[in-house]
């Protein structure tokens, strides 16, 4: 098996798992049955849960104001790379742990009744995609930059489906301002069953027993699907216990029933979304990290929910995350991680310079001007800064060559007149070495040195 010394609990497991074997991974584990793969996923899940306290404590022990936490699905590797130039630690929801969750029997039966495909079947494509992602970010994990946590565990459905009731359609469960904001941004789509199984969105509203509800432009990322069931309550011999017989309502649902159901569903979706976002913020706070999101609706929701106070660090982090850095494709990630860990002054200088330059952009309201000034900053730190360093290095090499010639000549003279003098050689060498150290230190103090180092 592959041997990895990552200092990361997830990779400790993967180092001894067939999941990380290259030959099996590239063939989508064709030599393994679905049951064998599911069993390994279950082993991974149990291993992570048994070490979850260690995972969280390791992150909390990192003292930094530049830690971020995100549950963004499939976050691009480029985003992680460019963030590494500024952010100390990037905490992600473990993509493999998420795949290890198995739906309840009740959920599977309900999905089958509605015509959805067996959602408990193994999705090998998603598994391979998650594992390849973990492979790619290995240097970032070993460099203590990327951290993986089982955040999805917090949001897993309860074993038994809860029943909710409100005589006012859950109108009063959220603060008025938040409720109104969600209501104004709600997007409702009717859905109908297809002949091939599953349901499809309709472009026009219709009184169908299936709907999708989301918010704003992110409706497909924050939305939920609902189906309208008719219920028959059956008494039992047990006190305070009853059974229900349910069936999907026929099409069309009556206008009055459908409108009441939609109203209730919008409110329930808003409640679920707000609860989830608040829980994610709670996770971030427990990790002493900043919460970030890619969804504009969620960002607007947070601004309405909390006092929004920008810091130089949050301003810079936000601009770095949103910038297109042209040099990212040529970055040696391993070198970047090494500098972050073993040459921290270089990393700190670059970060301070970014904060200084981006701080001046806080009051620029015009998007075009902001973009131009951001690009100028990157140009100065990137192409122009790297050229200056190359120029200094060229001068240093020439001077070193000259000093070396003088040193050799001096030593030859000492041999001719009085033999080889080690002390004289040491003194002469120290002079040249001191010059070299001074040059090297001046280069390191240049904020562009970090880019020069990882791009060369």
What does this structure look like?
The protein has 456 residues and is an alpha/beta fold. It folds into three domains: 9-159, no CATH class; 176-272, no CATH class; 326-455, no CATH class. It contains 19 helices and ten strands. The strands form three sheets. The chain has a four-stranded parallel sheet. β1 (67-70), α5 (77-83) and β2 (89-93) form a beta-alpha-beta unit. Mean pLDDT is 80; it is low at 1-6 and 401-434.
Write the layout of secondary structure elements.
Layout: H1 9-14, H2 22-26, H3 34-50, H4 52-60, E1 67-70, H5 77-83, E2 89-93, H6 95-99, H7 105-114, H8 124-136, H9 138-142, E3 146-149, H10 176-185, E4 186-193, E5 199-201, E6 210-215, H11 219-222, E7 224-227, E8 229-235, E9 242-248, H12 255-286, E10 290-291, H13 296-305, H14 312-322, H15 333-342, H16 344-359, H17 367-418, H18 422-444, H19 449-455
Parallel strand pairs: 1-2, 1-10, 2-3
Antiparallel strand pairs: 4-5, 4-6, 6-7, 8-9
Helix pairs in contact: 10-13, 14-16, 17-18
Main pleated sheet = 4 strands, parallel
The counted number of beta strands is: 10
Morphology call: globular
Tally of individual domains: 3
User: Which structural class matches the secondary elements?
Assistant: alpha/beta
Radius of gyration of CA atoms, rounded to a whole number: 30 Å
Question: Number of helical segments?
Answer: 19
What is the ordering of alpha helices and beta strands?
HHHHEHEHHHHEHEEEHEEEHEHHHHHHH
- Strand fraction: 5-15%
Spatial order of strands in the largest sheet: 3-2-1-10
Name the poorly predicted regions. Answer: 1-6, 401-434
Q: Fraction of residues in helices?
A: 55-70%
**Whole-number mean pLDDT:** 80
> What's the end-to-end separation, in Å?
34 Å
């Amino acid at each position: 098996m592959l041997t990895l010394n990552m200092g990361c609990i997830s990779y400790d497991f993967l180092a001894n798992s067939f999941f990380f074997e290259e030959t099996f991974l590239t063939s989508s584990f064709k030599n393994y049955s679905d049951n064998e793969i599911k069993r390994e996923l279950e082993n991974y899940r149990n291993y992570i849960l048994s070490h979850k306290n260690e995972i969280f404590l390791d992150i909390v022990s990192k003292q930094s104001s530049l830690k971020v936490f995100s549950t963004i699905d499939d976050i691009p590797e480029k985003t992680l790379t460019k963030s590494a130039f500024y952010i100390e630690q990037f905490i992600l929801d473990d993509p493999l742990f998420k795949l290890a969750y198995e739906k309840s029997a009740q959920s599977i039966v309900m999905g089958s009744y509605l015509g959805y495909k067996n959602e408990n079947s193994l999705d090998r494509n998603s598994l391979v995609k998650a594992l390849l992602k973990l492979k790619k970010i290995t240097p970032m994990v070993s460099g203590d930059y990327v951290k993986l946590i089982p955040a999805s565990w917090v949001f897993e459905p309860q074993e038994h489906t809860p029943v909710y009731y409100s005589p006012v359609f859950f109108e009063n469960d959220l603060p008025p301002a938040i409720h109104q904001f969600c209501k104004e941004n709600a997007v409702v789509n009717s859905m109908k069953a297809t002949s091939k199984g599953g349901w499809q969105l309709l472009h026009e509203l219709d009184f169908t027993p299936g709907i999708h509800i989301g918010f704003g432009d992110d409706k497909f990322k924050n939305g939920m699907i609902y189906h309208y069931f008719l219920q028959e309550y059956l008494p039992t011999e047990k006190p305070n216990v009853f059974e229900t017989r349910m069936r999907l309502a026929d099409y069309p649902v009556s206008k009055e029933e459908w409108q009441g159901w939609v109203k209730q569903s919008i409110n329930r979706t808003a409640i679920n979304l707000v609860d989830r976002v608040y829980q994610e913020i709670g996770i971030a706070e427990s990790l002493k990290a900043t919460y970030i999101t890619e969804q504009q609706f969620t960002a607007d929701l947070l601004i309405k929910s909390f006092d929004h106070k920008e810091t130089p660090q949050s301003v810079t982090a936000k601009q770095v995350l949103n910038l297109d850095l042209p040099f990212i494709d040529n970055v040696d990630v391993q070198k970047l991680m090494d500098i972050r860990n073993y040459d921290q002054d270089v990393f700190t200088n670059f970060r301070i310079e970014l904060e200084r330059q981006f701080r001046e952009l806080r009051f620029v309201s015009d998007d075009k001007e902001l973009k131009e000034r951001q690009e100028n900053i990157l140009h100065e730190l990137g192409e122009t800064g790297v050229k200056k360093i190359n120029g200094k290095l060229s001068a240093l090499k020439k001077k070193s060559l000259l000093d070396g010639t003088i040193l050799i000549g001096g030593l030859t003279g000492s041999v001719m007149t009085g033999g080889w003098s080690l002390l004289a050689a040491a003194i002469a060498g120290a002079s040249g070495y001191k010059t070299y150290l001074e040059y090297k230190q001046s280069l390191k103090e240049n904020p562009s040195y970090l880019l020069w180092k990882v791009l060369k």
